[in-house]
Amino acid sequence: MVRDFATAAVLALAAMDQPQRIAFQGVRGAFSEQAALQFSEGAEAVGYRTFPEAFDAAVSGECSHAVLPVENSLAGSINQTYDLLTDSVLHVVGEQVVRVHHNLLAKRGTRIEDVKRVYSHPQALAQCQEYLIRHGFEAVTDFDTAGAAKVLSENGDPDAVARAAIASKRAAEVYGLEVLAEKIEDRPYNFTRFFVLAADEAPKRASGLHKTSLVLATKHRPGDLVACLEEFPKHGINMTKLESRPRRDKPWSYLFYIDIEGHVDDANVAEALTALMRKAAFVKFLGSYPAAEPVEVE
Predict the structure, then answer these.
(1) Region for 208 from its dihedrals, namely left if φ exceeds 0, alpha if ψ lies in -120 to 50, beta otherwise
(2) Which CA distances in Å does 235 have to 128, 192, 259?
(3) 220: pLDDT confidence band, cut at 50, 70 and 90?
(4) Which residues are designated catalytic?
(5) Distance (Å, whole) CA 163 – CA 148
(6) What is the reported pTM?
(7) Largest Cα span, the chain
(8) What is the pLDDT of residues 92-137, one digit of tens each?
(9) Ordered domains of the chain (ranges, CATH)
(10) Exposure string for 154-193, b = 16+ CB within 10 A, e = fewer
């Protein structure tokens, strides 16, 4: 029995020393991979083809965390992540903000004047639309920015020199591509916010700003949403986000995704959430977590 206990203790300590495995959607070089590595230095970032697959990897324990985008400063919310969170057993345990710089990548030796078609994710193409039009490039959609770079690097077609991809500099390094042009996004204020998800809630830190995220549904009565939201200023709480999404189980009914400043262990936040539960038709606590460090515009 003593030997078994000692063996278990050694195994537990060894597990603690193992680098975290963090799931993200995409392939190496994706901005989601950058967010995962920002969250935990030395972690193993594991790419999955779809959002649900990355999500399920954290649910099953295959990965300790999942990092998924929730909003872009130009394109708005990423609804698929919010939809997954609604039915989730995972908690939001952190957030990361990534400064998005788009770059024009091509095979080595390609001249920019030879490029005819540019491949990337639809959002990346939209965020570089003015640049593409100015250079007369044909925009072609792909499933992912880094994925477009990967396909380009593997493409053996004779006309491959006429193709380029929009992706990160890391994608160029990973797939051996050349950066033909840097920072080609049309607007400088391009940031993506990511949620870090895990099975267990995050403990409150001794210092620093915290945020709390929740999902809310109201009853169909005049003023119900206002009555719910007024609990935040009543308790001295700043609401930083309010987003509505259609309910998938009730046509023409809506869920409200809310971010507020503060931690659920703070007395005023706990009191506000208790009052909210008395007024709302449905409240789901998604998590309290350390807020991301501010990112400066370069």
Answers:
(1) left
(2) 43, 30, 15
(3) confident
(4) 192, 194
(5) 10
(6) 0.87
(7) 74
(8) 999 999 999 999 999 999 999 999 999 999 989 999 999 999 999 9
(9) 2-98+193-198 (3.40.190.10), 103-181 (3.40.190.10), 210-290 (3.30.70.260)
(10) eeeeeeebebbbbbbbbbbebbebeebbeebbbeeebebb
